[in-house]
Every structure is written in C-alpha cells, then in structure tokens.
C-alpha cells in the first residue's frame, strides 16, 4: 500500500510539474519579487570618494552554519556552504557601497597583503598597502528561516528528483544579523563596530522552482534565496549596513592612497586655471556667556571645579595658563545661561608638548557632559571631533587658538583661523546636554617636560 502511495505522489508531481513551475513564476515573480523591488529604499550618496575599500569574506558564527551546509531545522537544509554565504554577503555589501560613490573597491584577492600589513601596524604601518584605505570585516551571528503553513505547520519539502523544485507554503519570516567592523588601514583605528540586522515577515505561497531548498543550489547565496523572505531580509541587512557605514565616513577627509593619487594625476592633466574655494572663517557669538583668562589665578583656578587630578596656574609668554601637573585632570564649568541646543561658539587657546612621559599629551574640551559626543580632542598632531579625525596639523610645542562653532546641528572646528573639519550631529544629541563645559588635560609629568596648558576660554551665543 505504502509503495503504491509514494508512486502515486511522484506521478502526480511529475504530471503537474510544468504547471507548478508556471505558477511559481507568476506568483513569486509577479507578486513577491515585485513587492521587494517596490520596497527597496534608495542608497545614500557621497559627492566624492572617501577612499578604497576591501572586504574579506564574512565568517558565519550562527548555529545554522553546520559544517559545509546551512541547516535551518529538520528538512530545512540548504547545500550552500557558510563560506559561500560569507563571501556573497561581503561582495554584495561592497557592491552597494561602491554605488553610493563613497568608496572604490579593491578585489578580495589582495586581502593577504592587507592582512599582513594590518599585523605589522605599529611596526611598519605605512609600507605599501597597495591603495587600500578601509578594511571591512564581519561575522554572521544570526540566521533564521521560519515557516507556518496553511491549516497548521507549513513546511518546505526538498524534492531533488524534480530538479530542485520545492513546495513553499503559508507565511514565513527570515532574520539575518551581522557583526560589522570598519577599520582604517593606515592606523588600524576601528571606525565602526555595530550589529546590523535584516528582517522579513512576508511570503506569498505557491509552488516554486530553481532549487530554493534543493540538493544543489547554484549562483551563490543570493541566487539561492531569490524571491524568498531571506532575499528580502538580506536586502534589508545590506541597506542598513550601507546607511550605517556611509553615515560614519561621509564627513571624513579623503584618504591618502589610490584615490588621492588619481586625483593628483587628474589635476596634472587639467589646464583650466586656478580653483578658488569659498572662504571659511570662524564666527563669534554676540553674547558672551563665560570668559576666563586666569589672570588673577595664583595657585589653582577657583572659577572651575576640579573633578579629577591636580592642576596649577602657570605663567608662560606673559600669560596665565591652567596646567595639568601630571596624571591627567578633569575640570568643569557650569554656565547658567548656556543652552547647548542653541547656536554657540567656544573659543580657547592651548599649548601642549610631549616630554619624557610614557603617555601622549592631550587637551580635550567637551560640551554638556564629560563623556559627551560633542567634544574636541587634540593629541599628537591630530584633532578629533566626536571621535572623528579632522585634518592633521603640527601642534607640538606651539600655541594654537581654537574656535568650536555650532550652527544648527553642525559643529565646525577652526584652528588658527582655518577650518579643520565639521560634523553633523543628531538633534537628540544636543537635547541631552547640560549647561556644562568640561576641560580635560593629560600630561605625564610637568617636571619631565610634559605640558598640557589651556587659557583664554570664551563661550558665547548668537
């Protein structure tokens, strides 16, 4: 009886094969795939490339990646290897990033060179990186495909004897998550470390072809799940990853390397004339909220609260400065009429010099909170705004005047009258800030020649 039943089922499926495949084409491509294309959002754009990016194949650490196959559950085995999944996702992400205009791509075959260089960072960090500015790495940490059938417990049944045609029933959902890291190659700084997710909760039902859940699936990961919830979840993941990466790098100055070299060659070919950029100079608020030059300070400043460390008022070049005497210091000033959400300007003059201390001398100013995202830090010859590196400038052993200007949601940093860079923040960032100005000075030992000084502080509003 049982063999007869099996033969009958096989005969029925063979006899309906062409109809089933036709139904799949009409239902899946005509309804679901169309819906996906309509829902696919537009990628963010950059007006010039930031640098060249290379991505290594993502590793799959999800429980579903078992050996050389991906297993979603009983009868849910996909014979696409985790390596195909990882390589496919990284290729898709890089392709999408290139379309934004923010990056140029370097083929993955050069990754061994990149890997060797990253391992050498700190010893010979600038030795022949072959034009790669950014390295994209990641691990797939979640991979789920769930189905609920019509009238209870829907399934996806692999039918290898029909060339990979599978029955798709009911409503399904898909979920994929990626731990993403974007590394700047020249200094090994991690610019981004986030978990990105892609989800789908819809699936049309019908009979589909093309080996979606068969024994052999060609064309890689994306082709394997074409017109399924996993395709939509993957698209969703790629979009959110691109949006996150572009938001992080959009305001970075172009990296030195292949992109900069190509721009140099282009300039040599052009003979149009001199290019004049618009002049950018710092603006001053018309209402002074707080001003301090420490001219009356004898030993320690009394106009600021010392939260950590030890500071002294020292004299240099006929001016009084607040100096960290060693080990790092944090000071705070409450400004009564200060509203961080409004437009304002913070001015200050600093001096720093590296002596015999082990740690880098630094001067840092933060708005609203000690750990505020709205902060400017000067260390070595580098200036950072909210963790984003601006233009480098020789700062060691020299006096510099800084203007931090907030207009709308954009904060600009000027040093000695020239723009170093700017960054746009979320309005929510400013809403969370209080009426404080924090000053952090880091110097190992003032007697050993480590100097971190600040003076002529002025906060004004518009």
Essential attributes:
7-stranded antiparallel sheet, 2 domains, 7 helices, membrane, 27 strands, cell membrane, elongated, 462 residues, alpha+beta, 8-stranded antiparallel sheet, Rossmann fold, single chain, Jelly Rolls, palmitate
How many angstroms does the end-to-end distance come to?
90 Å
Low-confidence stretches: 5-39, 122-130, 147-170, 202-219, 256-271
Structural class: alpha+beta
Mean pLDDT: 72
Identify the CATH architecture of the largest domain. 3-Layer(aba) Sandwich
| Rg from alpha-carbon coordinates | 29 Å
Helical residues, percent: 10-25%
Largest sheet: 8 strands, antiparallel
Describe it.
The strands form 5 sheets. Strands 13, 15, 16, 18, 23, 24, 25 and 27 form an 8-stranded antiparallel β-sheet that branches. The longest helix has 38 residues, at 2-39. α2 crosses α5 (229-249). A hairpin with a 2-residue loop joins β21 and β22. The termini are far apart. By secondary structure, the protein is α+β, with helices and mostly antiparallel strands. The chain folds into 2 domains: 22-250, Rossmann fold, CATH 3.40.50; 287-461, Exo-inulinase, domain 1 (Jelly Rolls), CATH 2.60.120. Helix content is 24%, strand content 35%. Mean pLDDT is 72; it is low at 5-39, 122-130, 147-170, 202-219 and 256-271. InterPro entries: Curli_assmbl/transp-comp_CsgG. Keywords: Cell membrane, Lipoprotein, Membrane, Palmitate, Signal. It comes from Aquifex aeolicus (strain VF5). Pfam families: CsgG. Residues 1-22 form the signal peptide.
């Amino acid at each position: 009886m049982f063999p007869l039943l099996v033969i009958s089922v096989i005969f029925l499926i063979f006899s309906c094969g062409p109809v089933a495949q036709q139904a799949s084409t009409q239902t899946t491509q005509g309804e679901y795939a169309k819906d996906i294309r309509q829902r696919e959002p537009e990628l963010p754009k950059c007006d010039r490339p930031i640098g060249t990016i290379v991505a290594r194949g993502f590793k799959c650490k999800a429980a579903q990646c078992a050996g050389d196959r991906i297993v979603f559950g009983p009868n849910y085995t996909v014979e696409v290897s985790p390596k195909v999944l990882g390589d496919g996702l990284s290729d898709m992400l890089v392709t999408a990033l290139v379309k934004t205009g923010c990056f140029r791509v370097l083929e993955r075959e050069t990754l061994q060179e990149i890997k060797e260089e990253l391992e050498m960072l700190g010893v010979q960090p600038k030795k022949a990186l072959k034009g790669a500015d950014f390295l994209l790495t990641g691990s797939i940490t979640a991979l789920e495909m769930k189905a609920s059938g019509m009238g209870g417990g829907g399934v996806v049944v692999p039918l290898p004897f029909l060339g990979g045609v599978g029955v798709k029933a009911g409503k399904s959902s898909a979920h994929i998550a990626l731990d993403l890291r974007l590394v700047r190659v020249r200094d090994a700084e991690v610019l981004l470390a986030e978990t990105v997710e892609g989800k789908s909760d819809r699936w049309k039902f019908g009979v589909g072809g093309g080996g979606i859940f068969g024994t052999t699936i060609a064309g890689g990961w994306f082709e394997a799940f074409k017109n399924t919830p996993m395709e939509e979840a993957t698209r969703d993941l790629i979009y959110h990853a691109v949006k996150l990466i572009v938001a992080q790098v959009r305001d970075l100055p172009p990296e030195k390397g292949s992109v900069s070299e190509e721009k140099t060659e282009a300039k040599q070919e052009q003979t149009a004339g001199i290019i004049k950029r618009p002049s950018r100079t710092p603006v001053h608020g018309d209402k002074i909220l707080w001003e301090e030059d420490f001219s009356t300070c004898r030993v320690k400043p009394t106009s600021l609260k010392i939260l950590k460390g030890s500071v002294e008022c020292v004299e240099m070049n006929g001016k009084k400065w607040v100096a960290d005497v060693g080990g790092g210091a944090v000071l705070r000033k409450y400004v009564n009429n200060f509203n961080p959400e409004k437009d304002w300007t913070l001015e200050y003059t600093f001096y720093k010099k590296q002596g015999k201390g082990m740690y880098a001398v630094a001067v840092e100013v933060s708005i609203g909170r000690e750990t505020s995202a709205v902060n400017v830090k000067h260390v070595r010859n580098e200036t950072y705004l909210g963790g984003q590196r601006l233009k480098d400038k020789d700062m060691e052993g020299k006096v510099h005047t800084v203007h931090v200007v907030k207009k709308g949601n954009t904060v600009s940093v000027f040093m000695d009258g020239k723009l170093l860079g700017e960054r746009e923040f979320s309005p929510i960032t400013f809403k969370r800030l209080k009426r404080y100005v924090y000053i952090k000075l880091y110097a190992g030992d003032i007697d050993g020649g480590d100097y971190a000084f600040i003076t002529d502080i002025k906060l004004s509003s518009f």
